[in-house]
Write a structure and sequence with these properties.
Endonuclease that specifically degrades the RNA of RNA-DNA hybrids. The structure is a single chain. The chain has 213 residues and is of the alpha/beta class. Helix content is 36%, strand content 16%. The protein contains seven helices and seven strands. A hairpin with an 8-residue loop joins β2 and β3. α1 crosses α5 and α2 crosses α3. The longest helix is centred in the C-terminal third of the chain and has 24 residues.
Length: 213
C-alpha cells in the first residue's frame, strides 16, 4: 500500500486535493481530454507515474485500479469543433473545468499539471489551485488523472477509427505522424480533425506577383 504525499504545504488533506491533467492537446484529430482525480490516503497503485512513461498495457491496468480505489474521478472532453472555435488552450481549460465540476466529491484544492491554472470562467467554481510543472511525475493524484485522461482518450480513438477508416487513427491516436498527414492529404480531413491545425488546414496558395512588363 502507498500513501499520498503532499507536494506543497497547502494545508489541505490528501482527500481534499484533486489532481488534474490532459491528454491529446497536440493531436491533429480527436478531442482533448482532461482527467480529474482525488486519491485516498492509502492506495495500491503499483507503478503509478506519468502516463507517458507507461506502456499502454500498464495504463490499462492502472486505469481500472484507479477507478476502483479513487475517492472520486471523472473525465472532461472538448471536441474538435470547439477546439477550432476557441483554440486548443482555451478548449483544454474548458475540458479541465468540466472534469472538476463533475467530480462526485468537490475538492477544496486543485493541483494542475503544467504551467497554468484553470481560469475562473472555465472552472466556474471557487476552488484554490496551483500549477505544478511536470506534476504528472511528481504528484500521485496528477499521475492518476494523467492515466485516466490518456487511457479514456485512447479507447475513444480506437472506436472513432472504425467510424472514420483510412486514417490509421487507432495506431497514431490522432497525432501528426507522417502516415496520418499523408492520409489527410489523400482523403481530406474528417469530422474529427482540427481544421485550424497545421497539417490539416489547407495551405494558402501564394499569389504570383503580376509582371509590370
Amino acid at each position: 500500500m502507498s500513501q499520498v504525499t503532499l507536494y506543497d504545504q497547502s494545508g489541505y488533506a490528501p482527500t481534499e486535493i484533486a489532481g488534474v491533467d490532459e491528454a491529446g492537446r497536440g493531436c491533429l484529430a480527436g478531442p482533448v481530454v482532461a482527467g480529474a482525480c482525488i486519491l485516498p490516503v492509502e492506495y495500491d497503485l503499483p507503478g503509478l507515474t506519468d502516463s507517458k512513461k507507461l506502456t499502454a498495457a500498464k495504463r490499462e491496468v492502472l486505469y481500472d485500479l484507479i477507478r476502483e480505489q479513487a475517492v472520486a474521478w471523472t473525465i472532461g472532453v472538448s471536441w474538435a469543433p470547439e477546439i477550432d472555435e476557441i483554440n486548443i488552450l482555451q478548449a483544454t481549460f474548458r475540458a479541465m473545468g468540466r472534469a472538476v465540476r463533475h467530480l462526485n466529491v468537490q475538492p477544496k484544492f486543485l493541483q494542475i499539471d503544467g504551467n497554468k491554472t484553470i481560469p475562473p470562467y472555465a472552472l466556474k467554481l471557487h476552488i484554490p489551485q496551483e500549477f505544478v510543472i511536470q506534476g504528472d511525475g511528481k504528484i500521485p493524484a496528477i499521475s492518476a488523472a494523467s492515466i485516466m485522461a490518456k487511457t479514456f482518450r485512447d479507447r475513444l480513438m480506437v472506436k472513432l477509427a472504425k467510424r472514420y477508416p483510412g486514417y490509421g487513427i487507432s495506431k497514431h491516436m490522432g497525432y501528426g505522424t507522417k502516415a496520418h498527414m499523408e492520409a489527410v492529404k489523400t482523403l481530406g480531413p474528417c469530422k474529427m480533425h482540427r481544421l485550424t491545425f497545421g497539417g490539416v488546414k489547407p495551405e494558402e496558395k501564394k499569389q504570383e506577383q503580376a509582371s509590370l512588363f
